[in-house]
Structure formats: C-alpha cells, structure tokens
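hi! just following up on the protien thing from before. the input was this:
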Amino acid sequence: MTHIIPAPRLVQFVKSAFMATGFTNEDAEITADLMTQADISGQDGHGIFRLPQYIKRLQEGGMNPKPVFKIISHRTATALIDGDNGIGHLVMRHAADIAIEKARTSGVAWVGARMSNHAGPASLYTRYILEKGMIGIYVAVGSANHMPPWGGTDMLLSTNPISVAIPSGINPPIILDMATTVAAYGKVKTLLQSGGTMPEGWMIDKNGNPLTDPAKSKDGFLLPIGGPKGYGLALIFGLLAGTLNGGAFGKDVIDFNADNTTVANTGQFIIALDIEAFMDTEQFKSQIDKIWAEMKSSAKLPGVSEIRLPGENLAKTIKDRAASGIKIPEPLFATLAQIADELSIERLT
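and the predicted 3d structure came back as:
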C-alpha cells in the first residue's frame, strides 16, 4: 500500500517533528522545506525517509537542535564555517547564503563547512544558488563509508557526491547530482524498505561477487563509477570537503546510519559563481539553449528513444509531484505514525 501526501502537508508534519525535538520555528521550517523538496525532486532516499534517523540522532544527542554557526576564517572570496553540529540542511543553507553574498562582489566564492551533518541531496543547494542567478557547485563527504580504495577492502571512502547547477533560457537548468559510487547508499536503504533487489553492478562482496540483496549490504561495498576514476574522484572530493575544512575523512567518518550519539563532523563545501563576472547572463543562457538543442538532436544509437540532459528528468519529476503529491510506502508511513505519537504531533493522513 502506498500513501499519497500533498507537499504542503508533508512540510507541516516535518516542521512539527523538528519543533518537538527542540528546533526554532524558523530552523524547523527551513529544514522541512528542504527535506520536502528532496521528495518532490524524486530523491526519495534523502527526504521524509530520513526523518526517523534525524529524530533519533537529535533525541540521543548526536545532533544539536539549536546550532549557532561561527565563521572560523574568511577572505574576500572564501569562508570556513563551523556548523556547531547542526543538521546539514541548516548548515549548508547558511553556507550558500554566505557564498552568494560574497560572489556578488568577488564574482566567485568558495565556502567550506565543518561540524555539519547529513544534508540531503546535493542539488538542494546548487538549485538554491541557481535561483539567485548564479552557477552552483556543491561537494560533500558522505555520511558513512561504504567503499574501499580501488583494489582494497577496508571501508575508507563514502559516496562523496557532487552537484553542479547551470541555468538555461527556455529549457530546464542543467543540474548534475551524482554520487562517486554507481548508486547512492540511500537507494540501497529504500530498496531494503520496499523489499526490492539491487541491480548487479551496485555492490560486490569482499570476494568480488555481485551482491543484490540490500539486506546483506553490510557484507559488501559500493562500487565506484568508472572503476579507479570514481575512486579518484571520491578521494579528491573527500580531501577538499573534509580534510581542507577540518572535517572527518577516511577512518574518522562515523556510520551515520548506525551511530546516533557520536558527533559526525561532516565536511562540505559550496561554490557560487556569478555568470556576470564572465559574460552577460542572458547571452550565456542562450548559449546553453544552443548546446541543449545540439545534445537533444544528436544521432541516436539503435534502441535509444531519447537523449536526456542532466536535470531534464528532475524538472519533470518536480512538476508531477508538486501537482500529484508524494508517495510514501506503508512501512515508512507506519514508522512516521509512531514518531508522531512519540512526539505528540498530528499524524500524517
């Protein structure tokens, strides 16, 4: 059974849950909106699905419900902030605001964060910068290690995602949002809840055999995109988002999925790039539309019905789900009902 919930109702429910665990009204509203945006975008492993996990960490002391952000250092086009162990959504929205403001005068700004937490899908923050008329770039250290270095078996790397958002004129923006692994671990968790199986190529066990049962995911590890190239990207992204910011990386990364009490010290960075520092924004968008048309009209291989650009399906999903609502499977719906009762808030209906 699947329950369909209108987006505004989902925002209201999530906001109530966070306020019941100590968030201020404003922080709860920002976080609830961002989490619901993840669901509207079709990124189901990062939206309401994560609420039970967040609530547990807040209740057991693993996250700070009332963080006070601090700027550790800053220059004209850079800043490093301490998230005070707040939920990553709040930390990265704050970091994005700083980056946007700095980019208005410097043309480009890079803001790093430490003492943060899981922040949902990467594109939440690049899309936010996109709305301000700029190009956004975001990279994070994943919230649990599920991948070894290429050729190894020790879990020292995470999915370490990247998102880049580029505006266009008449077409949807080009938005890349990907993990450095073939699949994000959130997809494994949602398949476990729905009773599905993983395609071959997502994970292998420590003997190199394909692993397709999500219930056995702890017996294996995620595979990087492009073999050693994906491993290289995960390593570099971890160094830039984690080590450079004083965040956790390598053996220091805790398993956010299993540990609700240890401070995660997640590292992330976000870049805002003002197009006007390079060329007229409308001219740039026109060029992106031209490139869009070239890609879409490319000759296709046999059996290929359509060539898509990154962000094209995202735009369709947002339009559909904003109108029709968000589907919540019964197991998750039941868990959310338990949370509502525990927190003394109104259940989803």
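DSSP finds ten helices and twelve strands in the chain.
The first helix runs from residue 7 to 20.
cheers
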